[in-house]
Task: inverse folding
């Protein structure tokens, strides 16, 4: 009797397994701290990005920017819109299909030998119109791998750069202001931005601005594998080429987080890695302080060769931009096209 009951249990268990397999139920697997759903009809792997809560328990919406108190050390963080970031169709193909099956744009063997200690970009700002200081290790690394954070400090020249993690309704106005004042800037875009706001990206190019690589999915690059790193950088370039026919020259790492390995990978792909010598907490869209604040922050921190980082999601920046441009020129600075 016991044997017969055991046989019946085994048969029932087998039937349950067969039923589940016919329904296509599979268990999600975790890769690189992201949950991937393997039940997609085209057999591709699509990420469901899960953000970790910040220190106060809220879900962080973002990351790139700095402290707006001149004279204090500042770190970076960058805003990316969650509604756009969650679209898994942005994710680039598996590494083996970057160009030809089994090929790679990166020298993986070399990258594996390099230090991958993660650093966060920070500068020490001041109100004396002098070049902000950076740590010696940062200076040595960016010098070795074609990184830039400031231009020619012997010339009264300024470079404007904008980070576009997502669109908040101000980029068109920013482009209008730049055009009226005959100013060329450098815009750093992400995968969702190219997908959802391709017309704005095309306008940037048609208006004579440069567009730079800010990665597909905006991860902390030191935390990803070499394969993912390649897809984040070269995958975005493929999107940009498909839209505009042009290639990237410059890359800005998300959140200002980098390592020797990341800088070397950027260099291998033909990019210069661009940091900044001025930025402030303009990315906090729910804590805007007015156009006067934006204007004063920029004007109080001008210096020769400055690379200014502004976030295009900022209402304050959009409203103050015309005054900022005119104020920079009134102080004797040239706003030059980015050519570093």
Result:
């Amino acid at each position: 009797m016991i044997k017969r009951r055991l046989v019946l249990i085994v048969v029932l268990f087998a039937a349950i397994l067969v039923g589940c397999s016919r329904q296509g139920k599979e268990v999600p697997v975790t890769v690189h701290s992201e949950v991937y759903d393997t039940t997609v009809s085209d057999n591709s792997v699509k990420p469901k990005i899960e953000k970790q809560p910040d220190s106060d328990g809220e879900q962080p919406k973002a990351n790139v920017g700095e402290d707006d108190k001149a004279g204090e050390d500042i770190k970076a963080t960058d805003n990316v819109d969650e509604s756009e970031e969650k679209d898994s169709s942005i994710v680039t193909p598996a590494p083996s299909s970057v160009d030809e099956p089994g090929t790679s744009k990166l020298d993986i063997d070399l990258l594996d030998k390099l230090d991958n200690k993660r650093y966060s970009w920070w500068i020490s700002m001041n109100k004396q119109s002098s070049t902000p200081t950076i740590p010696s290790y940062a200076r040595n690394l960016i010098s070795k791998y074609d990184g830039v954070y400031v231009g020619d400090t012997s010339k009264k020249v300024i470079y404007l750069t904008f980070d576009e993690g997502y669109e908040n309704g101000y980029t068109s106005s920013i482009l209008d202001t730049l055009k009226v004042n005959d100013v060329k800037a450098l815009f750093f875009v992400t995968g969702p931005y190219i997908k959802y706001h391709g017309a704005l990206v095309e306008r940037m190019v048609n208006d004579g601005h440069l567009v730079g690589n800010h990665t597909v999915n905006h991860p902390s690059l030191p935390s990803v594998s070499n394969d993912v790193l390649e897809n984040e950088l070269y995958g975005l370039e493929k999107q940009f080429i498909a839209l505009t026919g042009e290639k990237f020259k410059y890359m800005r790492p998300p959140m200002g987080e980098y390592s020797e390995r990341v800088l070397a990978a950027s260099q291998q792909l033909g990019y210069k890695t661009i940091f900044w010598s001025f930025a402030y907490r303009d990315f906090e869209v729910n804590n805007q302080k007015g156009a006067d604040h934006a204007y004063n922050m920029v004007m109080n921190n001008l210096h020769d060769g400055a690379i200014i980082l502004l976030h295009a999601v900022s209402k304050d920046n959009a409203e103050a931009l015309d005054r900022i441009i005119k104020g920079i020129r009134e102080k004797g600075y040239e706003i030059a096209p980015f050519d570093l």
Notes: Residues 2-48 form one domain.
